[in-house]
Amino acid sequence: MEQKTVLIGVTGCIAAYKTCEIVRGLQKAGVRCKVVMTEHATQFVGPLTFRSLTHEPVAVGLFDNPSDPIHHISLAQEADLFLIAPCTANVLAKVANGIADDLLTTTALSTTAPLVIAPAMNVHMYENPATIYNMGKLEARGVRIIEAGSGYLACGDVGRGRLADVSDIVSVVLAELGIRRNLEGRQVMVTAGPTVEPIDPVRYLSNHSSGKMGYALARAAAVRGARVTLVSGPVSLPKPEGVRVVQVRTACEMLAAAEEAFAVADLGVFAAAVADMRPKQVAAHKLKKGESDSALSCIELVRNPDILATCAASKGRRVIVGFAAETDDVVAYAKGKLASKGADLIVANEVGEGKVFGADSNQAWLIDAHGAEQLPLMSKDRLADVILDRAVSLLP
Ligand code: CTP
To answer: How far does residue 339's CA lie from ligand 1's centre (Å)?
Structure first.
């Protein structure tokens, strides 16, 4: 799934400090957050706080950004969803009636993204017929209102008006974005990238794997709420947000790290392109032309351990997803690997001639005990979601 952007509007209410937690909750699910504040909101929490949390500029005034004279339009267009939390009675009334007299309300009027509003105010303001009428008006227009909770309010009153629980607000926003949290409480282990098998201190055997598929899977699993350990060979990709990365080089190192992580996992996804062989001897010093010609022209290789098959041998009820990289007879070879390796699901694809390695998209087959399903060409981010949907359905 492509990264989603949520624009968060913060209004002048004591609950504004809770928006910091909303930002963190959404970020943990892989969502990019941008913040727009009313002038009054800046009295409660400084824009610098949100800027530090989001690593994005924080918008306040309509005319603050001289390089972007129609800032409300660019903010509105960037958002996949506009959340106003906390939303005061005043801003709620303005949005309900199409009033646009500052950056936040102008953006609310100009966005075509879904609008979610989490009100927070004094109990009498919340129960005032004007506020109830405005909330009804917004709901009738398809705006999602996350009802305020009851309890002790900052003004000393007890009653309805407290900002809804941060976790409820985060859940509603993720659901509206179509982000499923169906791996919450689960542990996932992913292997990714190539392995490198040294010949001497400067030379090695390896392959063209970029690691993109494994990294997309690790990121997608974290977005769904899993605790993810990514056992990665050397790649030049940024660490996915919220994922524990264990860096390895050789197949033997990858096996040790994968076995440790898989021991506590519910799901193992083996996306690494493990080198099948390694040099039997690793020279302690650089092999020199002339002096070591025989060692350089004839490198004796030995089989590497099969990481997937080793983990599958004692998998119990854990689910294993493997890959099959083939140049021909893709489905037939992949069916063979499903059986011989003990996987529950094999993602098969054709490799070679610029296909798959390093690419951002992939055309794959999903092969399990029931048969083979050919998938259309899609981005590796999208494919990661399709694979996880299937893997989740196999979990006990
Ligand atoms: N795999 C593994 N350890 C290995 C080799 C492969 O864990 N030593 C895993 C890969 O991560 C992948 C699956 O096994 O999930 C199949 O990998 P692939 O390279 O397609 O097949 P191989 O097992 O190497 O078989 P072959 O080279 O004969 O196609």
So the answer is: 13
Q: Do 164 and 200 belong together in one domain? A: no
In a domain, 142, yes or no: yes
Give the separation between CA 44 and CA 92, rounded to whole angstroms: 18
Domain count, the chain: 2
Q: Specify the pLDDT at position 356.
A: 59
- 323 in ligand 1 pocket by Cβ < 6 Å? yes
Q: Distance (Å, rounded) from C-alpha 146 to C-alpha 164?
A: 7
Find the catalytic residue in 20, 155, 252, 311. 155
User: Does 259 sit in the ligand 1 pocket, CB within 6 Å?
Assistant: no
DSSP code, position 281: S
pTM higher than the cut 0.85: no
Does the beta carbon of 274 sit less than 6 angstroms from any atom of ligand 1?
A: yes
Query: Does one domain contain both 169 and 23?
Result: yes
| Intra-chain end-to-end CA distance of the chain, in Å | 25
For residue range 89-114, list pLDDT tens digits in order: 999 999 999 999 999 999 999 999 99
pLDDT of residue 354: 63
The CB of 204 under 6 Å from ligand 1? The reply is: no
Alpha carbon distances (Å) from 294 to 232, 250, 289, 298: 33, 24, 9, 6
Q: Is 252 a catalytic site residue?
A: no
Domain span holding position 95: 5-177
